[in-house]
Amino acid sequence: MDKSFNYIISPEISEFRRFSPKLKIGVLASGKGTNFQELINLSEKGELDIDIKVLITNKDEAGCIKRAENKKIPHKIIRGKDYLRKELFELEIVNTLINFDVELVVMAGWMKIMSSKFVNAFKNKIINIHPSLLPSFKGNNAIKEAIRSGSKITGCSVHFVETEVDSGSLIMQAALSISNEDNAETITKKIHLLEHKILPLSISQAGYMLRNGLKDND
């Protein structure tokens, strides 16, 4: 972890939970897949007890595809434009996750807003990472909005997904200060480093909650 800037992570969890059998996750990603790569690395090192069952992306050119191919992780490209209705697009994703026996769905840079029907199909079993200190700056362009607003602190959050965008109970947050020298590019780089820290820990914590019935299904 880069120590060239100060940050705070809450709650202060530093160790991963152990799972036997390994926690079966499905990753939804639309971009470069750097968070996805961090999960691969931690899994290979035996630090994070996860079995990445499948990667789903909605972009043909997404960098996460190559990362999955390099490690022979099953992946599927599911494009919204290929379906007449959003409902059918989401149903294909749901069926894919079910077919791969996924326990926990991880949205790691997934740039699609999903309907309540999708969320309810995996009630309390979907987590998302967002580049702001929720509940502030929900939605797109969170980093630019934080800077534009004059905020002195920003960060990233991992939360359980509910039907309202970027809502749901928080699992973990990381905060850092915004200096006068910072811009969208520098803050984005710092937040990415923090995402790589808190997403794996949040997966571990969410998995523990699911395996131990601490997250209800109401």
What does this structure look like?
It contains 6 helices and 8 strands, in the order E-E-H-E-H-E-H-E-H-E-H-E-E-H. The N and C termini lie far apart (38 Å). The chain has an 8-stranded mixed beta sheet with strand order 1-8-7-6-5-2-3-4, sandwiched between helices. The radius of gyration is 17 Å and the shape is globular. The chain folds into 2 domains: 20-123, Formyl transferase, N-terminal domain (Rossmann fold, 3-Layer(aba) Sandwich); 125-198, 3-Layer(aba) Sandwich (Rossmann fold). Helix 1 packs across helix 6 (184-211). 40% of the residues are buried. The longest helix has 28 residues, at 184-211. The chain has 218 residues and is α/β, with parallel strands linked by helices. The model has no long low-confidence stretch (mean pLDDT 94).
In total, how many beta strands?
8
Percent range for helical residues?
25-40%
- Strand fraction equals 15-25%
Largest sheet: 8 strands, mixed
Structural key phrases:
Rossmann fold, 218 residues, alpha/beta, 8 strands
Task: Please summarize what this structure is.
By secondary structure, this protein is of the alpha/beta class. Helix content is 34%, strand content 21%.
Secondary structure: elements and pairs:
Elements: E1 7-10, E2 23-28, H1 34-44, E3 50-57, H2 63-70, E4 75-77, H3 86-99, E5 104-107, H4 116-121, E6 126-130, H5 142-149, E7 153-160, E8 170-177, H6 184-211
Parallel strand pairs: 2-3, 2-5, 3-4, 5-6
Antiparallel strand pairs: 1-8, 6-7, 7-8
